[in-house]
Records
---
Amino acid sequence: MRMYPGTFDLGMFLAVRAESRHEETIPVPEEQHVAQVSPKARQKLVYDFHEGNKDLKDLLGGKGANLAEMTNLGLPVPPGFTITTEACKEYLETGDEPKALRDEVSAHLDALEQQMGKKLGQKNDPLLVSVRSGAKFSMPGMMDTVLNIGLSDASVTGLTAQSGDERFAWDSYRRLIQMFGKTVLGVDGELFEDALDEAKKAKGVATDVELEAKDLKKLVKLFKGIVSRETGRDFPQDPREQMDLAVRAVFESWNTDRAKLYRRQERIPHDLGTAVNVCSMVFGNLGPDSGTGVAFTRDPASGHQGVYGDYLQNAQGEDVVAGIRNTVPLAELENVDKKSYDQLMQIMETLETHYKDLCDIEFTIERGKLWMLQTRVGKRTAAAAFRIATQLVDQGLIDEAEALQRVTGHQLAQLMFPRFDSDHAGDTLARGIAASPGAAVGKAVFDSYTAIKWSRSGEKVILIRRETNPDDLDGMIAAEGILTSRGGKTSHAAVVARGMGKTCVCGAEELEVDTKRRQLTAPGGIVIDEGDLISIDGSSGKVYQGEVPVVPSPVVEYFEGRMHAGAEDADELVASVHRMMAYADRVRRLRVRANADNAEDAARARRFGAQGIGLCRTEHMFLGERRQHVERLILAESDKEREAALEELTPLQKGDFVQLFEAMDGLPVTVRLLDPPLHEFLPDITELSVRVALAESRKDANENDLRLLQAVHRLHEQNPMLGLRGVRLGLVIPGLFAMQVRAIAEAAADRLDANGDPRAEIMIPLVGTVQELELVRDEAEQVIAEVEARRGVDLKLTLGTMIELPRAALTAAQIAESADFFSFGTNDLTQTVWGFSRDDVEASFFTAYLERGIFGVSPFETIDRDGVGALVRSASEAGRATRPDLKLGVCGEHGGDPESVHFFHEVGLDYVSCSPFRIPVARLEAARAASAGNGGGSDHR
Ligand code: ADP
Ligand code: MG
Ligand code: MG
């Protein structure tokens, strides 16, 4: 599906890779680096909750830093301490806990015991703790929290006595052995679950809450048996040993395969390590006046303030999210326990004002006393991010610069995709990984061949595969969208689809794909046969049966000028986007131009805020009916023939430019002279060979075809990407570039005559050395002077070059002598710096490279700072050293990529140029880059 007719930049809207993780946007002050000054310096390895703060995430992890922050705010946090990521790192490096760790933990444990008035695992009244992992970024694959550490055969009776609840004590012990056995000792969790099921069956009950103390005692015995049998050792009875083993297991969980995979996909560095939190237990499972819950300070979907959350009475830990019993909406807590509810509301307000952002929290009520167990700046949808940012400005909590750090270009891009009409969303078949955004509807096909065949006959198809491989490429191109049942965000399907800007849902594991029988089986036995309609949502990962209607995004309607932010029907989201874009345009330094080749795209680009055209490709002006002139040009045997062909092309070209300059009146338009190799304008070599051969056998060979075939053979190249193209063409085909320059000059003169304000810039592609540029410049200047004299105008045309070959970048100082501007062609520059032929590498081995972590993201998607970027930087500096007023821009697809825009801002380019639909994204990111330095500090994750 080409979502937006009129653009053919396939890279537009590349996938939203990592969700924005707002919790990390809080600026990190100096203190945290202190620990890293010298590796030899004695570092503190354990921090009491009251010693840390929210800015110490690198050292204490997200959870630990925020527990400390809440403690210091005076909120009721169960006391505890955090073991630093430094300790973890040393453990992972050496295979041993740092020497000082044991003593430091002992000291903090002593203090905790003093404060609580009881000792860990003490027989008559045990202190119990949870051991919780917590890295800087929350990460699936890390060790699950172990609750109730400190319980043993001896202390379980003490807990009974203290709580007056024998069932509670044995249930807690049973949970400890189960969690500890599974997560610390690595026992297969099913063994415990099976034993639990047996116990329920034996008693004839359905849920574990119906098991009594005596049943749980038996279960504990069974569980201990499982541990002994499976691990060859008894369940540790020494509470300190339990704690130490759990801490070590958390350290080790940093390197589980799942954690590593997640880090690679989300581009989280592998050397951060995790912190470990030891937190005294509070119990939500002590009867109906106890419970546990989760809450948001405002709606993470809409951004509205209110009471959002769930509460579960008489429950512990994950029970509330595990769905074992029905939770109640948080608002009902008011009826259950008004005092705690009011206190919670108060705390939520404190947290919002303090963090100046939406927070999500975990809490527990133990016999009417409220405890805070976790908070963090909460995740939110893209729409909510925009709404919340402007709401917080209105509340006076943040300023405009900070608001810009609260949203991302990826989020804005997400809001610009057409979407399924949620009112008409049909039955969800399954949910996979949202690999490449967009909304696609089509008939199910199960192989590439059918995809191509059906799409040629005008059908829209969704290509469904277990996973894709390079053989599926043509089918993927033909399909509206791609659905796979296997593979993650870096699978072949995901990478290639993102590269093509095509909707993709991958890894929908609930779906069984049977390519032989050409059918798909969804949970519940629903079968989708070849030809049945399905809909896939690449932004949510959802797969629907049947056709879900698609509606345009209101944000695009707004950018298009079809909806006004102030209008009655404009929704709150559009109003927020409007305000954020206004902030963005106020603070950004980088200008944003469009890659556009025709008046229609140029007009749209202007509506989207383009400040000119950074790349007008002229090749399409040689296609269609005009191809015949190009053929004549190529076949010309005399100067006269060639000149005649060029003469026919001049007015056509001129007409194109007049329209374009009119659409961009008053703004710069960079026109690139012809770039692609000539064979692209000739018939396909095989087709033509067959035609000629057939004609010859009939003895009526066409003279023109024969000449064409010769030309095709002559122009055939082993490696067209590195062959006769760009400036090389201009130099070997006399008159070609002169004709284009004349068309530009005449068009500009026409516009001046019509009282317009044309600002054309002529750009020479694929220059590798200044001599090439000088030759073209001399010729161009003559043509321009001639047109100016004849028409009596001053055209003020400038002439510059693309920097897209390593040699051009390396000799930028010389090239700048002959160039008024540089435009970095980062697509070709990436190809030539890496020695990658993009079409070949993306389909064949990029998946393997991404999976093996050679790079975290394709260098065609995000600029490779260290390699390609280094050349951009040095060429910019060298160019400006020669010519301080040298104008610098970029016109590769990177010009619209958020991360790359930040780089171009840093390097000091004047503008980025990107496809029209990415302009708002580039405007926003340019502003985020400009304001990150002053006020809003973001590490952009
Ligand atoms: P996660 O990172 O998965 O959120 P947590 O460490 O927050 O893991 O713990 C898992 C569950 O156990 C959460 O519901 C949390 O509130 C609860 N929990 C953790 N520590 C304690 C504690 N000391 N007392 C009571 N509940 C706890
Ligand atoms: Mg938690
Ligand atoms: Mg190029």
Note: The first strand starts at residue 46 and ends at 48.
---
Amino acid sequence: MADMTKRPFTIAVSGKGGTGKTTVASLLIRSFIDAGERPVLAVDADPNANLNEALGVTVHETLGGMREEAFTRAIPPGMNRHQYVMYRFRQALVESDGFDLIAMGRPEGSGCYCFANDLLSECMQQLERDYRYIVIDSEAGMEHIARGTIGKPDLLLIVSDPGARGMRTVARIRDIAVSLGLDPEKIRVVINRYRSGMAPVETGSDHPFAVIPDDPAVEAADLAAEPVSKIPPDGSARVAIGKLAGKIMEMEKGC
Ligand code: ADP
Ligand code: MG
């Protein structure tokens, strides 16, 4: 039974497209659940949303889509807009074994949506209370954190491929995160798709928080359109991400 008096520990996974954010996020979620740290809230905050596929669940509605509707359509009789938004929010939440998932959808265009965003962040806060961990699959710009729809994470993992170019992107994402008010102490680098024989990982002043091997099982799941979270537990990527989850659990205890 989760300790309901404690707020959940929030991890945002960011990085350039294709570096492995969704893979790392979904295997982290799997690891927390396997370690008994459940329920986990999975938040897909990447407009190219596919965290649900990596976790093997179907999304019927995103918050972005819901927001458009909840503010343009007639509200059912007997409900105010606020209640209606809460109701739709609960519907958008996908419940699964050990985790729930919410997909943010596209960030809105121009125009003032402050009221909508306030309502959404309120929904998010009400929701968050039940979870041990929240894992956010976030695009590099971290738009939802910038808009306050998602609170500041306790830990930001920046995923990168090994190599100098990847490291420059890490530096840029770190700058964005710091400009959004994140504590630099809470930002860690995860090197993904490392192959033995590669030059040692050069992360400048950063010691990588985790190095995830390139694992054929991950690619095989992708090719077979199988959820990556269901790859066997003894595979190298899953083992490495399991260790990463262990480090995060240690961190969380220290909070
Ligand atoms: P992102 O979410 O950052 O766009 P994905 O997690 O979708 O990245 O990964 C991009 C591609 O790289 C996918 O085809 C995925 O299967 C592959 N991939 C990611 N991590 C690994 C890994 N450790 N080993 C092998 N393939 C990987
Ligand atoms: Mg992705």
Note: The mean pLDDT is 88.
